[in-house]
Amino acid sequence: MSDPYLTLGLPPDADDAAVYAAYLAAVKTCPPERDPQRFQDLRTAYESLRTHRARLATALFNQEPPTLLEVLDRADPVGAPRRPARALFDALLRGGD
Fold first, then answer.
1. pTM for the full model?
2. Is the backbone of residue 9 left (phi > 0), alpha (psi -120 to 50) or beta?
3. Which residue, among 89, 62, 56, has the nearest Cα to 7 in the 3D structure?
4. pLDDT in tens, 39-51
5. C-beta atoms surrounding 82 within 10 Å
6. What are the angstrom distances between the C-alpha of 70 and each of 1, 33, 43, 58, 61?
7. What is the number of alpha carbons within 13 Å of residue 25 lying toward its C-beta?
8. Who has the most CB within 10 Å: 1, 26, 38, 67?
């Protein structure tokens, strides 16, 4: 089982409202029609964290370490391509820092 906190992008001290908000935001970015497996992972993570009691059970009984891909996704989430900031672009063209 993957780390549900990493899957939803939550800190370990998140409350019920934060878990619900993170779940809704994740579902908006990855609806079930686009990627059913990712949606199922999100749903499983939400179910394991949705109440305080469920978060306690996860903390006590989920002893598997996160996978390398989960850690990398948490460090640098993959999202829509973004344009670099104008200042960064100018600095790269100038050869500055």
1. 0.65
2. left
3. 62
4. 999 999 999 999 9
5. 6
6. 11, 22, 16, 17, 19
7. 11
8. 26
